[in-house]
Amino acid sequence: MPETHPRIAPLEPPYAEATGEMLRRWMPPGADREPLELFRTLAVHDELFSRMRPLGAGILGRGRVAPLLREIVIHRTSALTGAEYEWGVHAVSFGTPLGLTDAQLVSTVHGGADDGNWSPTEAAVFRLADELHTTSRLSRELFDELSRHFADDQILELAITAGWYHTIAYVIGTAGVRPEPWAATFPPAPAPAPISAPVSAEAER
């Protein structure tokens, strides 16, 4: 369940000049929202906050992997780690605008790589998120599959993206970061398909 009161309180305005500038840099250009509660929580440790930004910004703004594929890894990793906060922010800010369908968003929470919602390349990065979450390594079979779609530097970037969002999930789960009021929440699980009643031999005649 989402926290109603944070365990580690995020910074509130008015901010120190350097903190306010860093918060502005973390937000997308032209954003008309207040700095995210996650960012304001990270800013409690100003030195770590400043060191974390280059990697986070690099993943989102200067990556070598197509943004839609990046978002599959982020959404799936956030779902696997129970980070509804991060999943919901990305669903609104990145996933839907980049073209993830409602069915694909549901799949990142309740589905799987082979549920019919993903192309072969998309399914491979979905499986990367699953395997790294479960075992912290990639099977030889999946690495070979990824190598058919990506260069080595891109595979490294995908792995680092999954790891980064594990770190973010740890922060959310430790600090009790509260949901953003505008963000999405995890979708409900799809209803199971109805089970057809067996046809009696009498009915078949």
Order of helices and strands: HHHHHHHHHH
Kindly provide the radius of gyration, computed on alpha-carbon positions and rounded to a whole number of angstroms.
20 Å
Main sheet makeup: none
In quaternary terms, these chains amount to single chain
What's the N-to-C terminus distance? 54 Å
Task: Please work out how many helical segments DSSP would assign.
Answer: 10
Tell me, rounded to a whole number, the average pLDDT.
93
How many strands appear in the DSSP assignment?
0
The low-pLDDT segments are: none
List keywords for this structure.
globular; mainly alpha; 205 residues
Task: Describe the protein in words.
Helix 4 packs antiparallel against helix 5 and helix 7 (120-135) crosses helix 9. This protein has helices at residues 17-26, 37-42, 46-61, 67-80, 84-98, 102-110, 120-135, 140-147, 152-175, 201-204. The protein is globular. It has ten helices and no strands. It has 205 residues and is mainly alpha-helical.
